[in-house]
Design brief:
heterotrimer, A alpha/beta (141), B alpha/beta (560), C alpha/beta (424), A: 4-stranded parallel beta sheet, 4 helices, C: 424 residues, alpha/beta, FAD/NAD(P)-binding domain, 2 domains, 5-stranded parallel beta sheet, 22% helix
Chain lengths: 141, 560, 424
């Protein structure tokens, strides 16, 4: 357990629910670990496998996909596709010898500022314990 | 083309200024490739701020702009408008959130500054890959096709038809009015009667802007919002197919009734066991009588017939059974009337009073569970029912059943033709049960009345008027449609024709070109969610504004 | 062509949807709202039936659209004072109360709340928490700009004329104590009443023990307890905090008195049960009802899911709530006239939807009538439920009568259709 290790987590947040929830967490001045960098997409279904795998391969210690709760997707079904893809991705990163828990999926609604902060802080703690990404390989881009 | 990116950091009063070392950010970012300058301003969303930005754009002429401030959900629109004002393509601008998701969340100034710099760098790298997207305008036809000439179809047609808008009303039967034309009277409290329905029918038939086609069916529909083509087949003219062009389609195909004869517990072919509709028809003709021609001395109205099998409440039956009870007490005053019900569904404000009035007229209301057994007893009808576990028997001259409402015949075929979904019960499915109750995922296709699910007349009328409201607002004669800009597009050379994108598109915005063997995005109805982009195995389909290179750039900066 | 203008009264879901649809048609909308925030009653809910969808996620894009729409001019803390004229040319007078906080300058940072020395009951939170004299009703309320309550603010009510704690904390120059109440005169072509509903006062019926027993809650109070952005952040912390072993939900509160069924309570009571089963899975949940009103193709399915979760639905004829053994006891007579009782730790009352507080006053100002139940009367309840008998004045949503959200929205869209036709 490296106490100096500061996890670097990439978070893909959907515009309508989870990004709004994150905004609410900020407006409510909740303290959130700076480990996570947010990348906004319109819908969690936009996130394809390459994006997630690339993130891991390029050194992300953790990847978070966040979308609307099932049934609440702004585009009706998008988050269901994200969920299916996520299930598949968990298996793939396992094959790559990467701990499957380095990829997480969370449903966060626009009113769940607190939940967002809990998700990020807990994930950060877990990744801190897991240590740096063993596959880290930063290409020059 | 070399990029000269203008970066502006908003202080947002103390909100960003006090929590992020803006000077340090400016120092580090100024040296980044392609950054022309980095400036700071106290409050960019203020009138002064907006003016400053507009002047800056004109003065500095950056190729791209990054503003680091609050959440895009807050002010992306504001700054895009400023860009437009200044003659700058608003899609070459990126708003980076360093307030809600940075300054406000991270108490340590050093860490917050570091994060802000990361985000701004990501925004700069990303914006360099933005395309100068342009709004499009699409011609649209204001005319409307209404499928179904019952009360919903009539109401929709009459609400929409006008000198600038033609309505084509297609009805498969020989006459208009649907189920409501069979009713002997409507529900009070205003003491309405069916002449109001026939008045609507007359109005529609004589309206110079409503083209009524009876004994006709829609056999094909192509196109999209503003640009539909429909083929209509008239029964008498077997070879002739009429083609019409419309901008919107309203489905008002109504319902059919559950047939109680399919379940022997409802009496099967026992004499004098009829449905409410059959009673309405008898009452409309002026003669309510038993099979032997005599008037009934006692009747029982039985609700929830077929409810258990269908799994839903048909909404209108409790109140119309009360109406029929009133009818009997008003017209055949000696008749003994009993109404067997499971739960009284009286959702409208005047319904309960109507029920109380029926009680005052000595109508007997008996609460029972759904399981009734109807059979013959001599030349009368026996109803065996259960109340709180106890079995009871009621013997009457005539039993009137309130059967469940089912989807109309042809619903599934029409749904396929229109590419709209059905719900588990077989009725059409609205795009959003709560927020958008009369629209479908296919833009320009609306549904009203019982085609959407069981309901009563006032609800059907409201839904019909609602579809009219939506069409009147969005399909204005002479005006063009401006669709979403940040849509998906397909690069033909990479498309393998797997149609995965088509299968995930909820809005029917993707079609398959069988000749070329590729999928095609209809930009007029694409909503830009990116589900197709996320699912494409070859990467042929891409977002115009959330492209992979753009997102990868953000990832790279985050991981630096 | 001259741009037409329409007055919409009420910025709840019906009013907002109507305003957006009118704005989309190129009509100028003047949207008047009596509160300092928009969203009406729906924003008090955490979830809505039948899919347990997040209410704020659903409503906030609509609120944002309204706030950002160029064709909608929003007046909050405003009410209609006078109407003269006729369809096509109504002269309306709006009385707008001062907010004392500048909507343009304020960025919603909230720095002004803490220093304010005054604490009062938060009405939005049904009195379950306190707020300051300068406040937004809850986290996430839109617009994210507070208002000052002049009756409780020490400076504005004269009790401490030099207090400026909030102003000192504000660096955006957003607080202006000199702001005055205003009267605005407008000319509009049509008026749409979308003033929504109020809730039956449970304390007026002593048999339910509301206000007497601490753990008897009204549905609205429970909605706030349940909400993530509510006074307890969604935690079930009761007034008399104890382990919840059994909960009773009583429907039809006020039904007899009002003389109608509100049509939504059975469903939202079932919604409560779903939430409770999730939150306190071991608790027994009993729903007491007179008639189950679950119309339409999807509501019965939701009810059956509720049954499958083990929720007990009991039909009653009469019912009273009393105290017993340190908890509550629901005494009721069933369909056979037999007396029964159920011991619970908490009771939630589902009250009737009643006409909004200002309905009578507004009807008089507009010159329109009320129906027998006290809601705005329409030309024809069956075939013309959005037009009133005064040309140019329309009504929609719960202002017309109790109904659920989809019906309110369909009615709002219907009203827009009628208005657009009337404007040509």
């Amino acid at each position: 357990m490296d106490t100096e290790f500061k996890p670097n987590i990439v978070g893909f947040l959907c515009n309508w629910c989870s990004y709004a929830g994150a905004d609410l967490a900020g407006s409510s001045k909740m303290e959130i670990e700076p480990s996570l960098s947010v990348i906004r997409v319109m819908c969690s279904s936009r996130i394809n496998s390459n994006l997630v795998l690339a993130s891991h391969l390029w050194g992300a210690d953790g990847v978070l996909i966040a979308g609307c709760h099932p049934g609440d997707c702004h585009y009706e079904k998008g988050n269901y596709y994200a969920r299916r893809r996520f299930a598949l991705l968990k298996k793939i990163i396992d094959i790559l010898d990467l701990e499957p828990d380095r990829l997480q999926l969370s449903w966060i609604s626009a009113s769940e500022g607190k939940r967002y902060s809990e998700v990020v802080n807990t994930f950060t703690e877990e990744i801190s314990e897991a240590g740096p990404n063993p596959l880290a390989h930063n290409p020059k881009l | 083309m070399s990029k000269e990116i203008g970066v502006y950091i908003c202080e947002c009063g103390p909100n960003i200024k006090d929590r992020i070392d803006i000077d340090q950010a400016i120092e580090e970012i100024s040296s980044q490739d392609e950054v022309k300058y980095v400036k700071r301003f106290p409050l960019l969303c203020s009138n002064d701020g907006k003016k400053f930005l507009e002047e800056e754009i004109k003065k500095e002429e950056p190729t791209h702009i990054v503003i680091a401030a609050c959440s895009p959900r807050e002010h992306e629109q504001t700054f895009m408008s400023v860009c437009e004002q200044a003659g700058f393509n608003p899609y070459l601008f990126q708003l980076v959130n360093i307030r809600e998701q940075c300054a406000w969340m991270i108490p340590d100034k050093e860490e917050a500054t570091s994060k802000a710099i990361t985000y701004i760098r990501a925004g700069i790298r990303r914006v360099g890959l933005h395309r100068p997207l342009e709004k499009k305008e699409i011609e649209s036809n204001p005319d409307v096709l209404v499928i179904g000439g019952g009360i919903a179809g009539l109401e929709t047609s009459l609400s929409l038809a006008g000198k600038d808008r033609q309505v084509y009303l297609v009805e498969k039967k020989a006459s208009l009015g649907g189920m409501s034309a069979k009713l002997s009277q409507l529900i009070p409290p205003q003491g309405l009667d069916v002449s109001l329905i026939s008045a609507k029918i007359d109005e529609a038939l004589n309206h110079s802007n409503i083209d009524v086609m009876t004994s006709s069916e829609v056999i094909d529909i192509r196109g999209f919002l503003g640009n539909f083509q429909a083929s209509i087949h008239r029964e008498e003219e077997t070879s002739e197919i009429r083609k019409i062009k419309v901008g919107a389609i309203v489905v008002a195909t109504g319902f059919r009734l559950y047939d109680p004869k399919t379940d022997s517990s409802y009496g099967g072919d026992v004499d004098n066991v009829i449905t409410a509709l059959e009673l309405e028809e008898m009452a409309a003709s002026g003669k309510v009588q038993l099979a032997d021609g005599k008037p009934p001395q006692s009747v029982a109205l039985i609700n929830c017939v077929g409810r258990k099998e269908r799994g839903y409440c048909s909404t209108a039956c409790c109140v119309y059974s009360i109406k029929l009870a009133h009818y009997f007490r008003d017209h055949l005053s000696d008749v003994d009337v009993t109404n067997l019900y499971v739960d009284l569904c009286l959702p409208h404000k005047s319904d309960q009073a109507y029920f109380e009035e029926a009680k005052k007229k000595n109508v007997r209301f008996i609460r029972a569970d759904e399981d009734v057994k109807i059979g013959q007893k001599g030349d009368r009808v026996e109803i065996i029912y259960n109340t709180d576990g106890k079995s009871n028997s009621l013997v009457v001259d005539m039993a009137i059943l309130a059967p469940a409402m089912l989807p109309a015949e042809g619903t599934a075929e029409l749904a396929e033709m229109l590419n709209v979904p059905l719900d588990k019960t077989g009725f059409f499915k609205e795009v959003h049960e709560i927020l958008n109750p009369v629209a479908t995922p296919i833009e320009g296709v609306y549904i009203a009345g019982c085609a959407l699910g069981p309901k009563n007349i006032p609800e059907s009328v409201v839904q019909s008027q609602a579809t009219a409201g939506k069409i009147l607002s969005s399909l204005v004669p002479g005006e063009k449609i401006v669709p979403e800009v940040k849509v998906a597009e397909i690069r033909e050379e990479f498309c393998t024709g797997c149609q995965t994108c088509l299968s995930v598109c909820f809005y029917g915005a993707i079609s398959f070109d069988a000749v070329k063997g590729i999928s095609v995005v209809n930009e007029a109805i694409c909503r830009g969610c990116g589900s197709c982009v996320g699912s494409c195995p070859s990467g042929a389909i891409r977002s115009k504004h959330f492209t992979y290179p753009q997102l990868y750039r953000e990832v790279v900066e985050a991981l630096r | 062509m001259e741009k037409r203008k329409v007055l919409v009264i009420g910025a709840g879901l019906a009013g907002m949807k109507a305003s957006l649809l009118l704005a989309n048609a190129g009509v100028d909308v003047c949207l008047v709202e009596k509160e300092s925030y928009i969203g009406g009653q729906t924003i008090k809910f955490e979830e809505v039936y039948p899919n347990m969808e997040c209410a704020t996620c659903m409503v906030s894009p609509i609120q944002q659209d309204v706030l950002q729409n160029n064709n909608i001019e929003l007046f909050m803390l405003s009410e209609l004072e006078k109407v003269t004229g006729e369809a096509g040319k109504f002269q309306v007078k709006i009385s707008k109360k001062a907010r004392y906080v500048n909507l343009v300058n304020c960025i919603g940072c909230g720095a002004c709340y803490e220093p304010c020395p005054v604490e009062l009951d938060n009405e939005f939170e049904e009195g379950l928490s306190k707020k300051k004299a300068i406040a937004v009703p809850c986290a996430g309320a839109l617009p994210n700009v507070p208002a000052i309550d002049p009756e409780n603010c020490l400076r504005l009510n004269g009790k401490k004329k030099d207090c400026k704690a909030c102003q000192e904390a504000c660096v955006f120059d957003a607080i202006d104590f000199t702001e005055k109440d205003e009267k605005l005169d407008l000319e509009v072509a049509a008026i749409l009443v979308a003033t929504g509903f109020d809730v039956f006062d449970e304390s007026s019926l002593t048999q339910y023990g509301y206000g007497k027993f601490p753990n008897v809650y009204s549905a609205m109070e429970f909605e706030r307890l349940y909400a993530q952005n509510g006074p307890t952040e969604g935690q079930l912390i009761l007034r008399d905090d104890k382990k919840l072993k059994s909960i009773g939900i009583i429907h039809c509160v006020g039904r007899q008195e009002q003389g109608y069924c509100s049509g939504v309570c059975c469903m939202y009571s079932a919604k409560f049960a779903h939430f409770l089963k999730h939150k306190v899975p071991k608790a027994e949940i009993h729903e007491f009802y007179t008639d189950l009103c679950i119309p339409g193709k999807s509501y019965q399915r939701f009810y059956e899911e509720t049954l499958r979760k083990g929720v007990n639905f009991v039909h009653f004829e009469d019912i009273r709530v009393g105290a017993h053994n340190g908890g509550l006891r629901i005494n009721y007579t069933d369909g056979n006239g037999k007396e029964n009782s159920t011991q619970t730790d908490m009771v939630i009352l589902s009250p009737a939807m009643i006409p909004g507080k200002n309905t009578e006053q507004l009807a008089e100002i507009l010159g329109i009538t009320l129906d027998k139940q006290g809601f705005f009367s329409t030309q024809n309840e069956q075939l013309s439920p959005v037009t009133t008998d005064k040309e140019g004045i329309f009504v929609t949503g719960c202002a017309e009568g109790p109904k659920d959200i989809p019906d309110s929205i369909a009615q709002a869209e219907a009203a827009v259709g009628k208005i657009l036709v009337s404007l040509t």
